[in-house]
Design brief:
Length: 207
């Protein structure tokens, strides 16, 4: 096979992007709220926002109504024995507020970015002046660094997304006449996605 009839091409791309922690505030329940005390749950005008007791639901004159929740006469307070165990567990996983008030009381944390790697190989073979074969194979790998935020702790460890895409193509060109060309192409791709939690310590699913 003459060197002028076979051509090879190879390429590799590596792109890495990472960003730092965001600047801003977010909200977590106050210590009082975690214990069922919502007496400090107020609107912008300082008026208490009522929390209604689902156990008092009834229909009055065709309207669904509920009474404001209370515990031992204190409005907007949930008695300890009525706090759902699952909710109590989740509240224990949340970090404590860093600032006073029920809104914007903790600094945001986080990290984001993406790593992308792509390699491709291509070959052309000029079998004759009329016949030409061509083939290409390419693979793309991408994944994110451990996703964290907007709060510290286990509830702020999000899912990381990764994926692999394989692409191939084969073609043949045959010149039947100076004005008539037969072009045949066959190709396909296969993409796989993966999501996993960063709390298991995995950072690079492609290793």
């Amino acid at each position: 096979m003459a060197a002028t009839k076979i051509f090879f091409f190879f390429s590799y791309e590596d792109s890495r992007f990472k960003s730092g922690a965001p600047s801003g505030l977010t909200s977590v329940p106050t210590v009082a709220m975690r214990n069922g005390d919502f007496t400090g749950w107020v609107d912008a005008g300082g008026k208490q926002i009522p929390i209604y007791d689902p156990a008092t639901t009834q229909v009055v004159n065709g309207q669904v109504v509920r009474q404001q929740i209370s515990c031992n006469g204190a409005l907007n307070v949930i008695c300890p024995d009525r706090i759902d165990p699952t909710a109590k567990l989740l509240m224990g996983l949340l970090p404590p507020p860093e600032l006073p008030g029920p809104y914007n009381n903790i600094l945001q944390v986080g990290s984001s970015g993406q790593t992308q790697r792509v390699w491709s190989v291509k070959m052309d073979w000029n079998q004759s002046s009329k016949s030409r074969f061509s083939g290409m194979l390419s693979r793309e790998l991408y994944f994110n660094p451990p996703a964290i935020g907007p709060i510290p702790g286990p509830l702020g460890n999000n899912f990381t997304t990764s994926g692999v895409s394989d692409y191939f193509r084969f073609s043949h060109d045959y010149t039947l006449t100076p004005t008539f060309l037969n072009h045949f192409v066959f190709g396909g791709n296969w993409t796989r996605y993966l999501e996993f939690s960063s709390i298991h310590g995995r950072t690079d699913p492609m290793r």
